[in-house]
Amino acid sequence: MKTILLLLVALAAVTSPAWALRCHVCSSATNCKQPQTCPPSSRYCRSVTTVEPLTGNLVKKDCADSCTPDYSQQGQVSSGSGFTQCCQGDLCNERLNSAAPPHALLSIAPLGLALTLGLLAVVPGL
């Protein structure tokens, strides 16, 4: 009896569908949202934003087996360049993030503090 029960559990595990990732899959000039179930091999949701100053930006979202994020530095974005965002989790590519990597945004705060302190030291009475 235990052998039959064990066999049925094993058979159910093999024949049941794998838990599939869900991502937004679309292409648009705006932040599009179209949820779809990804193929079983997909481990990432990907958002690729291509910068086109004359025709407008293009946002492409899809499922990906592998994904390497890259970022463009603000002020250095040329036509046709862009950035890729990767995430893991159902519908995690819903929002678009800044083109600047998080560490670049954090490095602005110490610079601003240093400039303020420098001005206070140079200009008396402030």
Which terms summarize this structure?
single chain; 126 residues; two-stranded antiparallel ribbon; 23% strand
Description:
This protein has 126 residues and is of the alpha+beta class. Helices cover 27% and strands 23% of the residues. The chain has helices at 2-15, 102-106, 108-122, and strands at residues 22-24, 26-28, 35-37, 44-50, 58-64, 82-87. A four-stranded antiparallel β-sheet has the order 2-5-4-6, with no helix packed on it. Strands 1-3 form a two-stranded antiparallel sheet.
Mean pLDDT: 73
Strand order in the sheet with the most strands:
2-5-4-6
Along the chain, the helix and strand elements come as HEEEEEEHH
Query: What shape does the CA trace take?
Result: elongated
Can you lay out the helices and strands and say which pair or pack?
Layout: H1 2-15, E1 22-24, E2 26-28, E3 35-37, E4 44-50, E5 58-64, E6 82-87, H2 102-106, H3 108-122
Antiparallel strand pairs: 1-3, 2-5, 4-5, 4-6
Brief synopsis:
It holds the Pfam family Toxin_TOLIP. With 126 residues, the chain is α+β, with helices and mostly antiparallel strands. The protein has helices at 2-15, 102-106, 108-122, and strands at 22-24, 26-28, 35-37, 44-50, 58-64, 82-87.
